[in-house]
Fold:
Amino acid sequence: MSKEKGNPGVKVLIAGSILQLFLGVIYVWSVFVMPISNTFKWDLDAVRFTVNIMLCCFVIGILAAGKLQTKVKASYIVLAGGVMMAVGMFATSFLSEAVPSWTIWLTYGIIGGLGVGLAYNTIISSAQKWFPKKRGLATGISVFTFGFSSVIFAPLAKEMIASASIGLTLTLQILAGAFLLATIALFAFIKLPENTGGAAVDFGDKAQYTTGQILKKVDFYLIFFSMMFLTAAFFIINPSLSMLPSLHGFDADFGVTLVMIAGLSNSAGRLAIPLLGEKIGNRGAVLTILLLTAVGTLSLCWLTGPMFVVAIAIIAFCYGGSSGVYPLVTADHFGLKNIGANYGAVMVGFMTSVLVFPYIVGQLRIGEGAAAADNTGKFIMLAGIAAVGAVVTFILIIRAKKMKGTK
Structure:
């Protein structure tokens, strides 16, 4: 499967990348927050919390997909995930003021999040296994389209919601229907090499670890905590991007533009960082984006104007890059054979970040009347978290060099 010429994986990569574009629709949640809160008269914080539920279920879906890939054809997992996401969005369109706000946690958060995780992991695993010699490029393309989804669908959904002829309910139904059609049209193209009945995949002489085995290894926990510390900054800052400009020398209306810039940077990082990993090593790429995140976040304490925008773009770029490079680091350490399940275990670090860090820094709220001093405290804390992640990654690099030297 390592020969790229005539590789049937090209069709898998193209179909998977298109599906990833639709899967990323679930990340346009910020566009729906205010319209849903205002329409259904629900508490704004309760509606916002949907993204936490969704991201946690996204990781649970990734874990489940990794286990299922050894028993179920990849195309069936993608079909199940796509249908779940479409059903979650479609069910959300039927909610109303008459039901409690937590129902949206079930429809959009749990059902939708699980569905996206199932399909997302399966598509990335397929990309890596079909292109073992070009894992960085294949993975980068796959996650790039996932991130680019917000650039396309966020402004589209916003315009549709604001349209008198479409509105909130119909927007959700149209997006759900579009994704369901895309899933039905493309799911059959998603196959792991082992699903084709052809020759066994050549994993070389590298050890291929199971998830149970990696849980006993120090390197797994170093990768786990590295991801946990890296993703905190952008995850916490991103929901408040539309409110930050007024505190850093911009008109409040610039918030929408800043969200778009962050989305583009996020997408670019997903493609560029895996390619950087091919040049300097994947662990080196992780260390680079952690250091950039620490410096970029700390600089938000004093930057205003265009340089503030640059700093936000850098943080978003690094966050996006994590989606492309961590699957590669996982495969570097533990092999490709069980990459779906092993990457799912690593992604629990992302879920832990989602659950833990918002509570740690949550008292320092950005926007909504918060003082600039509060923002400064939050940025310093997030920069420190990223710096700890850089130390963890440096230890991982040292360990890898020592292991290589002993062979």
